């Protein structure tokens, strides 16, 4: 299925504006689409954005809660909601506090998930701020050295540094390979890089299915269909 970038952005914005403010919806659509252009085909941020929109649409009255509000620190409880729809709110808070105090941090918990960190850092670089984003990367993805059972997350890290031209951007996992690479390799029947994974016996493997039972990956055309339905 072929679809124009302008159409995708309008659909993202149209679906999001039913759930958050118009400014927040525009920011969400802009940064998600930019992340998709940077990440695809290794990742599929549009698929994650559709999932985030569905979480909000089915929220049933749940809302963001502020747990800690200090001079340079804000801690939020998302109550199971997807944080990406609040990118603008969080960037606004970070900028306001950083301009006043020199630096600022926002943390959140109980969110529905966080797949790619690029929008979180890049959005701050656009405001002439250095953005650093950290995430535990889920649980039970990484096997400790000598172990047979996943214990740690992949611990992704992203930063963006503004320059006179385009910002310098890094987005990476601290594991040997990111978790989505295992999912992609299993889906395509490809081998993993040597020395990047172990099986349930703790032995090195290049078999993605042996390294980790991958979750279901949607057919990509269904993403466009779901997005059009949410935006209608």
Structure description:
This protein is α+β, with helices and mostly antiparallel strands and 232 residues long. It has one domain: Ribosomal Protein S8, Chain: A, domain 1, CATH 3.30.1370. It has 8 helices and 6 strands. It has helices at 5-16, 22-39, 45-57, 87-101, 118-125, 179-188, 208-211, 220-231, and strands at 65-69, 73-77, 105-109, 131-134, 157-161, 168-172. It has a 3-stranded mixed beta sheet, with helices on one face. A 3-stranded antiparallel beta sheet has the order 4-5-6, with helices on one face. Helix 1 (5-16) crosses helix 8 (220-231) and helix 4 (87-101) crosses helix 5. The radius of gyration is 19 Å and the shape is globular.
Write the layout of secondary structure elements.
Blueprint: H1 5-16, H2 22-39, H3 45-57, E1 65-69, E2 73-77, H4 87-101, E3 105-109, H5 118-125, E4 131-134, E5 157-161, E6 168-172, H6 179-188, H7 208-211, H8 220-231
Parallel strand pairs: 2-3
Antiparallel strand pairs: 1-2, 4-5, 5-6
Helix pairs in contact: 1-2, 1-8, 2-5, 3-8, 4-5
**How are helices and strands ordered from N to C?**
HHHEEHEHEEEHHH
**Architecture per CATH nomenclature, i.e. the level-2 architecture:** 2-Layer Sandwich
Main structural class: alpha+beta
Distance between the termini: 18 Å
* Number of DSSP E strands: 6
- Specify the CATH homologous superfamily: Malate/L-lactate/L-sulpholactate dehydrogenase, NADPH binding domain
